[in-house]
Amino acid sequence: MDRKKIGLALGAGAARGFAHIGVLQVLEENNISIDMVAGSSMGALIGALYCCGISANMLGKMAVAGGNKPLFDYTISKMGFIKGDRVSGIMRLLTRDRDFDQLEIPLSVVAADLITCKPVVINTGKVYEGVRASISIPGIFVPVIKDSMVLVDGGVVDRVPVSVVSSMGADIVIAVDVGFNGTHSKPKNVIEVFLQSMEAMEIELVRRKLITADILIRPDVSNISMRRFDLAGECIEEGRRAAQEAMPALLDLLGRSGQKDDSPEDGRQNNVG
Length: 273
Fold this sequence. Notes:
This protein is of the alpha/beta class. The chain contains 8 helices and 8 strands, in the order E-H-E-H-H-H-E-E-H-E-E-H-E-H-E-H. About 35% of the residues lie in helices and about 15% in strands. Strand 5 and strand 6 (about 150-155) form a beta hairpin. Helix 1 (about 20-30) crosses helix 8 (about 230-255), helix 2 (about 40-50) runs antiparallel to helix 5 and helix 4 (about 85-95) packs across helix 5 (about 125-135).
């Protein structure tokens, strides 16, 4: 019998998206190979690096080491506060300027087109360009102009792209939702107003879509601000904890009865060079 294909849907959440790394670490530790990934926003960024062959452990080291380094290039623009060239440059380097069809694991990323108000699934062209579109939080990042589209953060229309990874051919879908599920504190500045407003819109949109996932993993990161990229370590640990809790159900679904596979690791690299 052919092995069932496993798809991973990684959701939006800005800094909270570092929890995806913890989930990936636990999947690797249990020798669960991912056959395809769909991501929105930070889920697109983490998914792209993973699909390039960077191991989850190395992603964790990179996230913790880079948490206090400036990633954003602020600008004066009518369209946003962050130009986005610095992030694009970093992603271009880390993905080695690959096209989507050159990735080790098939990847689709989701953006939103402000012209049509519809989701746009990106799985062709340069990976770093697709990620740059998917992470473009409206009002904060300058949008990406492509053809006749004005592309912004995929979380606006599809916070956890379960249906996208299903359409890629996944037999089993694991969804990781790092979005907000609690109560906000009073916003202190315009950026927090933007971020909290986006989350308010996303909450209702995401409820119905998540129920179609076979396994739903929800790291408890609501207490971590979306802006706290310096708390990558805490987010990763929450991702690990949530994935470990979900592992018995996932192993049962895979017919492994809670036992680890004795097959060798998939050989993921531990460097980016």
